[in-house]
Design goal:
It is a single chain. Helix content is about 40%, strand content about 30%. By secondary structure, the protein is of the alpha+beta class. The chain has one domain: 2-Layer Sandwich (Yope Regulator, Chain: A), CATH 3.30.1460.70. The radius of gyration is 15 Å and the shape is elongated. The N and C termini lie far apart (about 45 Å).
Length: about 140
Amino acid sequence: MQPFTKEMITAALDEREFKYFEDADGDIGGNFQGNLIYFFRIGQQQEVLQIRAMVQHLFGMDDVARLYEFCNAWNHDQLFPKAYVHVNDDGTVLVIGEVIADWERGVTPEQLDQVVIAGIATSVQLANEVAELRQKG
């Protein structure tokens, strides 16, 4: 076990040869099948990994009720990511997926890899189902 660090996140992504970027705030993100996925360190000691996926498909305010229904069903049936509806300031609506792992006592590179790969894979699965929902209009 070792303390959870930003370098561990980039090492896990490098190990799998995933492309990623570091934004102006120092946050790590990447484009996975058209979906923006961030890898945040949060918590008092930044000991919590939050994998946040912004699904690429945008909706309008008229879609909010069915998106709530979709997210509720998803959260009932799937272990992760947790899905929720987010309304932007401009009135566009999207679905966000989140996977959280708390490593206050440390983490191994193997544990981190498993959560990262599962977070990415299930976020892409969520995005694919949202795309189907989008097509149904």
